[in-house]
Amino acid sequence: MLKRISSVLEPKEARKLRAGDEVLISGEVFGARDSVHKRFMNLIDKGLPLPIDLSGRIIYYTGPSFAPEDLKSQKPTALRSAGPTTSGRMDSAAAVLIRKTGLAATLGKGNRNKAVTEAMKECGALYFAAIGGCGALLARSIVEAEIIAYEDLGTEALWRFVFNDFPCIVAIDAHGRSLYEER
Questions:
Q1: Which of 153, 161, 178, 181 qualifies as a cystine partner to 157, CB 3.0-4.6 A?
Q2: Cβ–Cβ contacts within 10 Å for residue 132, how many?
Q3: What is d(CA 54, CA 76) in angstroms, rounded to the nearest whole number?
Q4: Residues marked as catalytic
Q5: Per-residue three-class SS string for 110-160
Q6: More confidently predicted of 75 and 123
Q7: In terms of pTM, does the model score above 0.90?
Q8: pLDDT computed for residue 5 by the predictor
């Protein structure tokens, strides 16, 4: 049974979801990949604020693609694909972001390392997985898309998306149960 959830999650709500739950996410989600995470870590190391408040929020690991002529306009209808990126590439930053910013969930593809899973258990965070190779289909659930920081990174910039019933699954829950370990 599909569960509809808001993109803003409190730890109490996150702990109710279980690995294997199929969810539809609606609301504002941030999109970020490797380069944004490096910049976030640099700011944290210097004791400086991030350009966004991540408390209770979800980061989607993606670099959306637009038709070249539509990249500047960033019209949601011009969004061609927004598939998940391999999450393990952000593992070096994810545990820190969960602990220091209150990040509630991440969304991508593939397993997470032990440090990330431990931070999730400690802080009541989740890891959602989306199916790789379905970027064009997943983009249909993104009704707004705009770059909000680090425009110099192009499609790998920091994005603000608005999801409408974005389909994914709880791959690792806030109790540390992982679908990847139960195969």
A1: 153
A2: 14
A3: 23
A4: 37
A5: CCCCHHHHHHHHHHCCEEEECCCCCHHHHHCCEEEEEEEECHHHHHHCEEE
A6: 123
A7: yes
A8: 96
What pLDDT is stored for residue 69 in this prediction? Answer: 60
**Rounded Cα distance, 6 and 105, in Å:** 12
Counting every residue written for the chain, the total comes to: 183
Structure tokens at 32: 């970020």
98 close to 123: Cβ distance less than 8 angstroms: yes
Measured in degrees and rounded to the nearest 5, phi and psi for residue 107 equal -140, 125
| pLDDT, averaged across the chain | 92
Alpha helices in the chain (DSSP H): 11-14, 34-45, 91-101, 114-123, 135-139
62, amino acid identity: T
74-83, 97-106, 130-139, 156-165, range with the lowest pLDDT: 74-83
At 72 the pLDDT is: 60
Give dist(CA 49, CA 62) in Å, integer: 23
- Alpha-carbon dihedral angle through residues 7, 12, 16, 19, given to the nearest 10 degrees: 70
